[in-house]
Request: fold
Amino acid sequence: MLERAELVRSADPEQFNELVGQLNASIKAASDRQRQKLEYLKAYQLSFSGRFDLGIEAAKTLFENSTDIETKVQAGSLIVNSYAATRDFSEGLRYLNQMIGLVDEVGDPEIRHHAWAAAGSISNHVGQYEQGIRYADLMLADSPSARTSCFAGALRMEAFYNMGQLSGRETEVRTIIDECVGAGEPLFANYVRAYHARLMADRGDRNGAIVLLSQHLDEVEATKYPRVIGEVYATLAEAYLAAGDYEAADRFARGVMRHATAMASSAPLVTAHRVLYESALQRGNNAAALAHHINYFDANSAYLNEVKARALVYEQVLGETREKNQTIELLNRENQVLQLREEASALATRNTQLAIALLAVLLGTIAFWAWRTKRSQVKFQRLAETDALTGVSNRMDFSRRAEQALAYCSKDGEEVGLVMFDLDEFKSINDRFGHATGDWVLQEVAKVCSDICRKNDRFGRLGGEEFAFLLVGCDLPSSVALAQACRKRIAAIDTTSTGHAFAVTASFGVSGTRASGYDFLTLLSRADDALYQAKHAGRDRVRTHGLEADTTTVAAN
Ligand SMILES: Nc1nc2c(ncn2[C@@H]2O[C@H](COP(=O)(O)OP(=O)(O)OP(=O)(O)O)[C@@H](O)[C@H]2O)c(=O)[nH]1
Reply:
């Protein structure tokens, strides 16, 4: 029913009213969208029946509140048309500006075309003919129905006529008339027919023009639409005047004036006064000619003022729109600036975070490399200090540590002993059982001797098969006792795990700080002397240096 009502709304007002009545009765069953459609049709009904103020009010409510874009655009189009009909062009243009941006979102082509038709019509009304043509062309490029082609064609012709560019378009004019007739739109067919008649008269075919319009005069009058009647009558009046039929010219001119209230400040009214004036003048009725000329002058001034006023209205609304758009643009820019600022601050935060992360990575890398370097240093230092075969201090490390300990003990006179020993006949072990067995012996010796060391004692391999102890806090007898203990442990080494059974012995030389002082090299050299004596005395024994030698010598076993 809604669709049917929409279809017949302009062509069959009676059926339309009936359908709206029925729809009103069944409103309870309607969906939201259907309700809005019905509201639109009721607004249309009000405007169509001449109650424009009520129609506009209802359409405005719908335009503001409708959630359905199609109904919104339909309501907008109705507002624009109604304001144009009541000659409130400024309000019409304001609503056009609000509505026209929504048209592209409308799916139904009929509704789109209706909106563009309203836009084209009001554009022509305010003298913006190029815009009128543009809207008409949008309709023609959008697969128009015959009815839409008729509307669009009429808009184009109206614009071209008013721009003085109608000549040469006779074929197009004929086609449009045919389209309007075919679409069952006598009003528009006759409106364009008036332009056709003008074109014919312009090229000298006044009779043709008169015949064309006269043939359809009943049809024109049946439309009851003053604008069309005015155009047709004015064209006929002009044609009859040019043809010298003053009576007929006067008749049609007066016919225009019968509709004067609906035609105020219009081109047909100006034409009508001019025809009456010229007709009177041609017939020598100067008094009447003067009276008509005054009327003609007034009508022309009023018309020109109206044209100017409409152009001003357009400029004013255009200015308002620009201002509004500029404000919107300004707000958009401000928004953009705010957005950019936010982005910049987010970027700065991200940069800071990145910098912190980078720094952390850098510090981590530095720490890692520092740790690795330190570890390598420690490793190299240990390697540099350790004898690779036995794992005890090497000569260099032993000497350094011994010197440190001696320097420390020398301060408070604490006694220190130095025990040096050398394996006996070691060459013969190597020779008899091989170098690997010799190495094994060196490792075993280092192990048994390390085991008897106290916490502060130092033990090291001086080189080859030569080892030494530095005994902090040990006088000479204590040092000799440790040497003896060590000698016994060496002699007790069980070599059978090497596959050979042989004896391992060592000869010991002992020196002490009480007799030799705290100089390491002196102590070492004196222990070495004692060791030499031990070797000389038959090996596997302990000897002390110097005077103490006889008292502390302990024989082997
Ligand atoms: N297997 C092994 N042999 C070594 C090592 N360092 C030195 N030697 C050997 O130790 C032997 C030392 O021999 P000598 O200096 O003649 O002394 P010796 O045979 O112990 O005789 P005396 O000291 O007089 O009892 C040499 O044959 C060296 O080659 C080592 O690290 N491993």
